[in-house]
Amino acid sequence: MTDTGTTTKTSVNKFEKFKAEKDGLAVKAEIEKFAALGWEAMDETDRDHRLKWVGVFFRPVTPDKFMMRMRMPNGILTSDQMRVLAEVLQRYGDDGSADITTRQNIQLRGIRIEDLPDIFNKFHAVGLTSVQSGMDNVRNITGDPVAGLDADELFDTRDLVQQIQDMLTNKGQGNPEFTNLPRKFNIAITGGRDNSVHAEINDLAFVPAFHSALSTHTSTSPDGDAARTLSEQHSALNFGFNILVGGFFSAKRCDAAIPLNAWVAPEDVVAVCRAVLEVFRDNGSRANRLKSRLMWLIDEWGIDKFRAEVEQRLGKSLLPAAPKDEIDWEKRDHLGIYKQKQPGFNYVGFHVPVGRLYAEDMYEIARLAEVYGSGEIRLTVEQNIIIPNISDGSLATFLAEPLLTRFSINPGALERSLVSCTGAQFCNFALIETKNRALATIQALEADLTFTQPVRIHWTGCPNSCGQPQVADIGLMGTKARKNGKAVEGVDIYMGGKVGKDAHLGTCAIKGVPCEDLQPVLQELLIKHFGAELKQEALVEV
Ligand code: SRM
Ligand code: SF4
């Protein structure tokens, strides 16, 4: 699934070799040259790997059409930015499409290498960046999608997420300090109560927690007094974050993040991110890419040593974690109409089937955000969209907009929670086609069954788990199955994933179900475990 590039246990892998020869970010200065050369004449390592440092992904499935992965801090963009993304896609006609990703982000498809200089100029003009969004970099930083809108939130994460991105990317220009990590790295930060970001599946996550022990804490660091001063500035509230580390999915191993046993005030979050990344950058394994994610380093050192190294980089000791975090709500999906904390205003979440968008949809979303809201658009990790700041007075007209008949604010019980990775249409790791199959499957199930609750079904095309099957009620992971002695497209079925408060990962419950036999298997699981019932018409057919 994953090209490990491993040579021997002690030597560095092939990815490390090409990174040492030339830093990935170096391609930023060569875009004009690549555009003139064309994809076929380019150096293959630049094309297939280094271009990912500027968010440009060679797709072997469609070699002349690249994918571009943006950065959308906290999943927020403006209508102007959405329009520019639409404009880029529009020139590719039927070849151009976009996907909302499982990290609150947007990917564009159909991109031709000769257009890159123009595309980067357009991005720059509206403050968009795609830098450091692939390969051994920190991915899009996720935050609560209703940050600043939700009356029950404990902290508005928007500014912190932007600050972390600015630190990592030198305000979108690219930052060589963090362009050669041993492997990819995920960061999430939430100030809401429902763990909307899936904190547990990030290498580094910050979850809200009040600390009562600030006044009694004795710092052991040499400059403990300085630390105390900063923390005490915040002690009027004692609000901050407990830190989780090491969560990740990979083909070899999946683990939920574990507590660092550390609490941090909001003003120290950026410095903690920097410290953790420096420790990972300088100590993470560069031998075997299957064992390079942060958790492997934590395993090797133990959590106490890891924490001590982070504190050393930080230059002060961290307070112990608050005894309890404030994630005490079930996860919300934000679809529908909700009052904002700003009186007289609402946010409306609508469902984008499997996250797929086309240029005309994006223009329309930008228009709706401007006409009815403040021009702001938000994305969720469920691959859906929220338009905030719609006044009470304009809500009814907004809800009558034709786009909402396709992108429903109240979709069916399976449709509303459906998530899917890219799959075989564009991804060469895929073992199965996902997005179209995911939609067809739930449409057939919804036709035959009635539901009393939404059921979260996640599809992922291979064990890399981009579609997060382990967080789902029912997770479907592409595999090769056998039927009548032949290899056919199939899935392993995961069950038991729990999100929101007390989140935990699901595990594989049934292996190797051929996709063509999946429908009755899912129907049975939905009836047995999720209270679904056969409709009268379906009973008659049986
Ligand atoms: Fe992913 C690699 C798509 C979220 C784990 N992922 C890939 C590549 C780049 C492989 C490739 O070159 O084809 C896929 C690009 C396909 C394409 O054309 O779109 C890809 N990953 C995606 C997206 C688009 C899935 C989606 O449809 O939403 C998500 C983009 C997020 C973003 O905006 O940055 C995406 N990937 C994830 C997640 C979920 C998450 O972050 O919550 C995971 C599991 C969590 C994690 O990383 O711990 C994930 N992707 C992987 C892995 C396995 C990593 C590992 O340690 O082994 C790979 C393979 C690799 O890195 O070697 C991978
Ligand atoms: Fe591609 Fe999906 Fe596998 Fe990720 S999980 S690598 S998007 S097929």
Helix and strand layout, with pairings?
Blueprint: H1 14-21, H2 31-37, H3 44-48, E1 56-57, E2 66-69, E3 76-78, H4 79-90, E4 97-100, E5 106-111, H5 116-125, E6 142-143, H6 158-169, E7 187-189, E8 204-210, H7 224-233, E9 239-245, E10 248-249, E11 254-255, E12 258-264, H8 269-283, H9 294-301, H10 303-314, E13 336-339, E14 345-350, E15 356-357, H11 359-372, E16 376-379, E17 385-391, H12 395-399, H13 403-406, E18 419-420, H14 435-448, E19 449-450, E20 457-460, E21 474-483, E22 486-495, E23 507-514, H15 518-530, E24 533-534, H16 536-541
Parallel strand pairs: 6-7, 7-8, 18-20, 20-21
Antiparallel strand pairs: 1-2, 2-5, 3-16, 4-5, 4-15, 8-9, 9-12, 10-11, 13-14, 14-17, 16-17, 19-24, 21-22, 22-23
Task: State the main characteristics.
542 residues, alpha+beta, Sulfite Reductase Hemoprotein, domain 2, Sulfite Reductase Hemoprotein, domain 1, 5-stranded antiparallel β-sheet, disordered N terminus, binds siroheme, binds iron/sulfur cluster
Question: What count of structural domains?
Answer: 3
Q: Could you tell me the strand content as a percent range?
A: 15-25%
Bound molecules: siroheme, iron/sulfur cluster
Broad structural category? alpha+beta
Describe the structure.
With 542 residues, the chain is of the alpha+beta class. It is 29% helix and 20% strand. The protein has helices at 14-21, 31-37, 44-48, 79-90, 116-125, 158-169, 224-233, 269-283, 294-301, 303-314, 359-372, 395-399, 403-406, 435-448, 518-530, 536-541, and strands at 56-57, 66-69, 76-78, 97-100, 106-111, 142-143, 187-189, 204-210, 239-245, 248-249, 254-255, 258-264, 336-339, 345-350, 356-357, 376-379, 385-391, 419-420, 449-450, 457-460, 474-483, 486-495, 507-514, 533-534. The protein has a 5-stranded antiparallel β-sheet with strand order 1-2-5-4-15. The structure holds siroheme and iron/sulfur cluster (SF4). Iron/sulfur cluster binds next to loops. Iron/sulfur cluster (SF4) binds at residues 421-423, 427, 429-430, 460-462, 464-467.
